[in-house]
From TrEMBL:
Sequence ranges assigned to domain DUF4220 in this UniProt record: 51-427
Keyword Cell membrane appears in the UniProt entry: no
Protein name: DUF4220 domain-containing protein
Matching InterPro entries: DUF4220 (IPR025315), DUF594 (IPR007658)
Superkingdom of origin organism: Eukaryota
Residue ranges of the TM segments: 15-34, 46-68, 88-110, 293-317, 337-356, 492-516
Keyword entries, A-Z: Membrane, Transmembrane, Transmembrane helix
Length: 799
């Protein structure tokens, strides 16, 4: 008995190669147009489509080549055109071209770059497999277009392998290493020194230091009283990218590079600094995940034109061959034309993306030594093109009938997502919907957000129904137990049935669900969809971060001080504020781990926010501090819980603390009968109302890592800071503390994790990391003495 009917099997045998070739072309098309979008958004749907396309593209091409090779060894089917198998051999180099991949994506993740040897082996094996398929069809009347396609496919595959090789971290680091520096010839110098001494000549060795930075001529022209053009923003971004890309592989930088960058960023406006860092991170993304860095070399450009010329030549040779409809199957001719035309169109699209990339604009026009020098016509043209991709700010209404300028660059023009995500602890405990600060109009709400809203509504209804069922089951169980004690008939008939259908079966499904959730993390995925909020980056938030880091950079004159400043996680901010008794707050920073501090200050910030009266009546400055503190508080909790890889260096036992605090909050809210209220204000007031005369640790010990009521004490301490006194108010203190907590996480996150996040839309954390490096607030600036050199001095000092 046939599992697959003969008729269907014949169709599959006839169309399997054709289907695979078309499918391979579809995957290539998806990758070339969708891959650039992943640096602009973190949407799960796009990531899933790219993941599937990236993995299946290689598999499809490899399998199709195997099927073509197998087909060449078969006898032709009755009724097939005489030379149809020779046409199928033409498809083998097409698949090699597909395996070369589009220019817009070479690596799905950083780990793919480390597997460049595998791709090199794949290049050799696939070229041999394709050649074998062609050899089996000899003598092939289509050998000219086949040979030309082999040239194109080989070049494309070599480009991909070379890109992966260049972006692998060890090779990336090797290319950036400077030639070894042995310093002065110590042996020769000491030999001369001994010789002079033996001749009784007054001799000494003097160490000549590098000139002080104020005595050295500036190495970078700094614009004064002049706004940067869009082209200059890209040019400076490219310059600093070439300097600071060493951060990815933990290279150290000289004091010259530190001073040059810090002096330059000190005179920039916050918006200009944001544009430069956007460009830098864009260059870093392209160098790690695309062919851009390879194509923007002379060799890469020449070979790309050779590849495109070979593809066009192959098409014209095939097109001008007579009697195609007689020699080959009509459907196969159509598929071949489709492969040629779509392949040429995709190559043209790649060239357009290549020509209009930031990298092209940066290398076409060099950065001028004098910023005041008049711009050429080429520069003006390039600047006009770049004006379509400039960061755009748009006024949006927020709570309290206020408005802020937020980043609203068009989707296709943006260089990163421009979004700050948030996760709220108390909102998660109550399963409440947390509202954002900036109101979304109907125009701003995307189809995906509408689907998420409907999904959340359905989940809430299901949870409500399950709650009813659980309550009814509890009542039913109590009644049946009571009846079974009085009536033996019920005890031996109804009660066992109840246990099977209402207890045993739900328990089996519960165990099964727990296994599924453990393997696929379904609950975590659903929680991420339901409880993560998003806010656009506002101009005042970025300006506040920029000014705070700029202020701290003024103290970082030496690498030791810079390291101390970058390692501050709130204590520097408390000392920098005008507080009468900072020690009351300092103990929640200095005496606790970083992850514990994050959770403490997050809950305390939320308690202060929910219990703040008359938010609409706050002054503009205080309200901005309130908004900033709340958004960054939720953002840091999002990083700690939802993006643990970004916080792996500082997270500690953050997950354990979060779970213990969550369990205590659930127990507390359930005991107070507000667990189902979804009223965050009521819940916060209830937590604040608990008497805290005795420290929680003295009551509970340190076995539980919960910080719920420690955060309540911290919130009360913050509440004592009156906004109308001479002291800085609680929201000013909180905003400064959250800048330091954010900066600490950014500077202590692994550089590779920052780069990995660029392929998922980017994060504010990545911008803070690079901004700190520009201000000299990084561990990598460890060379302080510069290029000091020894000199042998003969004669009396001063002669």
């Amino acid at each position: 008995m046939r599992v697959i009917p003969l008729k269907i099997k014949n169709i599959l045998d006839k169309w399997n190669i054709r289907g695979l070739v078309i499918l391979s072309l579809v995957f290539q098309t998806l990758l070339i147009f969708l891959a650039p979008l992943r640096k602009r958004t973190s949407k799960k749907v796009l990531a899933a489509v790219l993941w599937i396309s990236y993995l299946l593209a290689d598999w499809t091409a490899n399998y199709a080549v195997a099927q073509i090779t197998k087909n060449q060894g078969k006898q032709p089917e009755p009724g097939d055109p005489p030379k149809n198998k020779k046409l199928l051999a033409l498809w083998a180099p097409f698949l090699l071209l597909h395996l070369g991949g589009p220019d817009t994506i070479t690596a799905l993740a950083l780990e793919d770059n480390a597997l460049w040897q595998r791709h090199l082996f794949g290049l050799v094996s696939q070229a041999l497999a394709g050649a074998y398929a062609v050899v089996q069809s000899l003598e092939n009347v289509l050998w000219p277009p086949i040979l030309l396609l082999f040239i194109t496919g080989t070049i494309k595959y070599v480009e991909r392998t070379r890109s992966l090789y260049a972006a692998s971290l060890d090779k990336f680091k090797d290319r950036m290493l400077q030639p070894p520096d042995t310093g002065p010839n110590y042996a020769k110098l000491m030999e001369e020194y001994a010789s002079k001494k033996a001749s009784n000549l007054p001799t000494d060795i003097v160490l000549i230091d590098e000139p002080d930075k104020h005595e050295r001529p500036p190495r970078l022209a700094i614009p004064k009283n002049k706004e940067l053009t869009y082209l200059e923003t890209i040019q400076y971004g490219f310059k600093f990218f070439n300097t600071f890309k060493g951060l990815v592989v933990d290279l150290i930088f000289s004091f010259r590079e530190r001073d040059e960058s810090r002096d330059f960023f000190n005179v920039l406006e916050p918006g200009e600094a944001l544009g430069i860092i956007e460009a830098e991170l864009g260059f870093l993304y392209e160098s790690m995940y695309t062919k851009t860095a390879i194509l923007h070399t002379i060799v890469g450009t020449v070979f790309r034109f050779i590849a495109f010329g070979s593809l066009l030549s192959s098409f014209f040779v095939f097109h001008h061959r007579p009697l195609k409809s007689v020699e080959f199957h009509g459907a196969d001719v159509v598929i071949t034309y489709t492969l040629f035309i779509v392949g040429i169109a995709l190559d043209v699209a790649s060239m357009v993306i290549f020509l209009f990339s930031d990298w092209t604009f940066a290398v076409l026009s060099e950065l001028k030594d004098d910023p005041e020098e008049p711009k050429s016509s080429i520069d003006s043209l390039l600047n006009w093109f770049l004006s379509f991709r400039k960061p755009r700010w748009k006024k949006k209404k927020c709570r309290g009938n206020r408005s802020h300028e937020v980043l609203a660059t068009g989707f296709l023009s943006r260089r990163w997502s421009g979004t700050i995500y948030g996760f709220n602890f108390i909102g998660y405990c109550l399963k409440a919907k947390v509202s954002g600060f900036h109101r979304k109009t109907m125009h701003d709400v995307s189809v995906w957000e509408s689907i998420l809203w409907m999904f959340d509504w359905v989940i809430r209804r299901i949870q409500t129904v399950l709650g009813w069922i659980k309550n009814a089951n509890t009542l039913l169980r109590t009644a049946i137990r009571r009846w079974s004690k009085k009536n033996p008939m019920i005890r031996y008939s109804v009660y066992p049935l109840y246990l099977v259908f209402f207890s045993l079966i739900p328990m089996v499904f519960g165990v099964l669900w727990s296994y599924i959730d453990r393997i696929f993390s379904v609950k975590a995925f659903l929680d991420e969809i339901r409880f993560i909020t998003s806010e656009p980056l506002s101009k005042n938030q970025w300006e506040f971060i920029f000014k705070e880091l700029k202020h701290k950079s003024n103290f970082a004159e030496t690498p030791e001080v810079a390291k101390k400043v970058s390692s501050a996680r709130g204590e520097w901010a408390l000392r920098d504020t005008n507080l009468a008794e900072p020690d009351n707050l300092m103990r929640y920073i200095e005496n606790v781990d970083y992850d514990q501090s994050l959770l403490l200050w997050h809950i305390a910030t939320e308690l202060c926010f929910q219990t703040e009266e008359d938010k609409e009546k706050l002054s503009e400055e205080i309200y901005d501090d309130l908004e900033f503190s709340k958004i960054i508080s939720d953002y840091m909790m999002y990083l700690l819980i939802m993006r643990p890889k970004l916080m792996s260096e500082v997270a500690g036992i953050g997950t354990i603390r979060f779970r213990d605090t969550l369990a205590e909050a659930d127990r507390f809210f359930e005991g107070m009968h507000i667990n189902n209220s979804r009223n965050m204000k009521l819940a916060s007031e209830t937590v604040i109302s608990v008497d805290n005369n005795i420290e929680p640790m003295l009551v509970k010990g340190d076995r539980s890592k919960s910080v719920l009521f420690d955060a309540s004490i911290l919130a009360k301490e913050l509440g004592k800071l009156k906004k109308d006194s001479n002291e800085d108010g609680k929201w000013k203190v909180l905003s400064k503390v959250w800048v330091e907590l954010l900066s600490y996480a950014a500077s202590h996150c692994e550089a590779t994790q920052h780069v990995a996040q660029l392929s998922r839309g980017g994060e504010l954390l990545n911008f803070v990391w690079l901004l700190m490096a520009h201000f000299g607030l990084a561990d990598q600036f460890q060379i302080n003495k510069g290029d000091a050199r020894a000199k042998l001095v003969v004669g009396e000092p001063g002669e």
